Each structure stands twice: as structure tokens, then as C-alpha cells.
Amino acid sequence: MNPFGYRNGRLHAEDVDLADLARETGTPCYVYSRSAIEERWRAFDEAFTGRDHLVCYAVKANSNLAVLDALARLGSGFDIVSGGELERVLAAGGDPARTVFSGVGKTPEEMRRALEVGIACFNVESEPELQTLNAVAGAVGRRAPVSLRVNPDVDPATHPYIATGLKESKFGIDIAAARAVYRRARGLEHIVVKGVASHIGSQLTDVSPFVLALERVMELVGDLMDDGFDLEHLDLGGGLGIRYADETPPEPVDYALALLDRLQRFGSRYQRLKLLIEPGRAIVGNAGLLLTRVLYLKHAADRSFAVVDAAMNDLLRPALYDAWHDIAPLQLDESRERRVYDIVGPVCESGDFLGHARELAIAPGDLLVVASAGAYGAVMSSNYNTRPRVPEVMVDGDRYHVVRRRESVSDLLAPESRLPG
Ligand SMILES: Cc1ncc(COP(=O)(O)O)c(C=O)c1O
Ligand SMILES: N[C@@H](CCCC[NH3+])C(=O)O
């Protein structure tokens, strides 16, 4: 479902007129659709029906408490990468027993807290991390549930900054070395091996790299079973892409069918393995957008700029990855002159843009939307140029709730101090 659409020339999110919302909240402002988020989570969940599974939403994509709350109510699991994300899951009513912890740099403090609250599994990314976890678990009198995150060396055919499953990446343990590490893990008193994990990258628009990674991981699973490991689950990570422009990523059901079909072809001893998946972007990406207002139109010798009130500190993806997000006016007005603009923000960087060469019929004061901003939008925002973070709003039918208030400049100054004396 696309929760965003024009009615009588005015853009709505579900049943809310976004121009009315913008008047109340001001701009810039992130807007999410609760029903779109829920529908996407359910699409993944239903796609794996018939197989023991858990959809562990990747919190990093959008960690707003209201988003986590909505998913926790559906029974979602969570994939976290920091102690901070763990606290968010707990604060939102998420179940630690359905939470897995990924990331290459978990600290002993983060491990201790995760053990205390009883998370489902640590996806361990190196042998030194495994040793530290063993020591921390021993100190708190627990055994740590563990999967090794293996790196299957598969090219996910995505932006190099978000590819993680190639052997030159910092993520995971080389799959060729993993069997030996599992054997050593068995000798560690405070570690319990639960499964195998892998994640190859983000914004994948084809199922074949997922299937190839699965095949490589299943070979290891077979070896481990031969070694006598009683594996409970297989974590296939996240990474399914969304449509930003003209991509045609598989739907969750096609992604699931491809994986389930391939799994089916392995013998019966593999069929009781519980499947974990960690989608982030594919659940929230197209359930959110960024509202912004045109401040000035500026015509230079060979190009025109629309200077808007949102900037790279609010939505970093265009500046960081040269990512393309659709940009459209909130109210259609065909009487206006169409022109090609670079859509830029107020930040003092030449790389501060939201879109290049967009043909739009706009005037100063107009409201615009930057689409597909529900994932890796607000979570990657910063206070660069002392710009307060913008509000986040959750639309629910014909109502909406401000689920993160706009920061003020005093919020930004408060933690700092002048020199003593
Ligand atoms: C371990 C892990 N799981 C899940 C995800 C979620 O990825 P995506 O938002 O592409 O589904 C990521 C990020 O790429 C990740 O590193
Ligand atoms: N931040 C990236 C995705 C990172 C995935 C993290 N493992 C993006 O906006 O596309």
C-alpha cells in the first residue's frame, strides 16, 4: 500500500491532509504512516507462514519509539546494534527475548546489559568479541546465546557503502574460517551456540544474492551439524530494497518464496531450523516522508536553485550516497511555470542537496515532500550548523501524533559549558 496520495490536488498521508499537518507542526518534519508500517511487517510475517520464523525489525532503520511500539504490539522481534537501541526496544515495550544483537564493536557494558535483560542472541562478529562475551557472561553468572555472523563473500550489487557481505568488508567472520571458530566456541564455558547469522548488504533489488548467500551458509550449517552442533536458528539478516525511483525490488512474499524454496531442497534435518530475518528499510522506507518548505528560488547563470528549509543534516542520504528521493509539491498547481531546479538546503556545504535537476512548478513558501524517507532518515540526522532536529509525526487513520517534538536551540546548548574560571 502507498499511504501517500493526492486527493483534490492535495497530498494526504492516510486520511490526513499534509498541508494542514505542516501548518500545525511546522517544517521540516518527518511523517510516518502507522498502517503502512504495520502492513509491511505483516507482509514479511505472513510470507514465512508454515515455517517457524521471527521477523526481527532492524531498529537502526528508524528507531522512533512509536515505530517500535507499533511493531512490538504485532509481536515483532528486533535487531539492535547498540546498547542505546536496546534501551529503545525496552522503552517501547519490545520483548528482549525476541531481540538479537548485531554489530562489530559491542562493548562489555552493552553485553552485560543485554545478558541481564535476556536477549535472544548475540550475533558475534569476531573471535576477540566472542572471548570478551564469554568473560562478561562468566562475570554475571550467565551463558550467552550466540550465533556467529559469517561473511559469505557474496556481491549484493548495491552501493559500496552499504554492502557488507564481501570478504573485504569489516562485517562478520570469513565463512571459510567459521567452522574452526565454532569448534573453539564450544570450548567456552559461558557461551551457548544457538545458530548461524549472515547479512550481506542493504537495498538489494534482486533475490539472487540472498539465495547465493543462503546456499553458502547452508553448507556451513551442514558442517556444523556434522560436528554435532544442535543449531536452533538461522538468521538471514535484512537488506531487501525498496523503490525510490524505478527499482523493482521483490515483494516480501517473493523474497520469502525464493528462500523457502531453496531451503526446501536441503534435507529434512534442516527443516526444523527457525528462520530469523532482519528487514529494516523494506518495512519503514516507503512509510515515511520529509516535509519541507521552499524558502527562496535563486536563478544563477546556468542553473536554478530551490533553497528549502530541510538540509543534509535532516536527510543525509543524498549527500552521503548520492541517493535519489522523489521530490514533489504538496499541492498541485498547474498554472505555475515549470523549471528545473537543484533542491538545496541551508547548510554550508556544496554537498548539501536533496535532489539535482528536478523539474517542478513551485514558488517561495510552497510545501514539498521528499519521498521514501522513513528509513535511514531521522535516525541519521545531526545537529550540524546547530540545526535542531526536526519533529517526527505518526499518522494513524485521520489522526496524527507528534512522536518526537522539534528540538530547540536551548536543547542543543544545554549539555555544553563555557570554560571554568
Ligand atoms: C546486521 C544487519 N541486519 C539488518 C540490517 C537492515 O538492513 P535493511 O534496512 O537494508 O533491511 C542491517 C543493515 O544493513 C544490518 O547490518
Ligand atoms: N544508511 C544506509 C543503510 C545502512 C544499512 C546499515 N547496515 C542507507 O541509508 O541506505
TrEMBL record:
It comes from the Bacteria. Its EC number is 4.1.1.20. Keywords: Amino-acid biosynthesis, Decarboxylase, Lyase, Lysine biosynthesis, Pyridoxal phosphate. Its cofactor is pyridoxal 5'-phosphate. Pathway: Amino-acid biosynthesis; L-lysine biosynthesis via DAP pathway; L-lysine from DL-2,6-diaminopimelate: step 1/1. Residues 35-285 form the Orn/DAP/Arg decarboxylase 2 N-terminal domain. Residues 29-374 form the Orn/DAP/Arg decarboxylase 2 C-terminal domain. It catalyses: meso-2,6-diaminopimelate + H(+) = L-lysine + CO2. Pyridoxal 5'-phosphate binds at residues 239, 278-281, 376. The modification N6-(pyridoxal phosphate)lysine is found at residue 60. This is Diaminopimelate decarboxylase. It comes from Sulfurifustis variabilis.
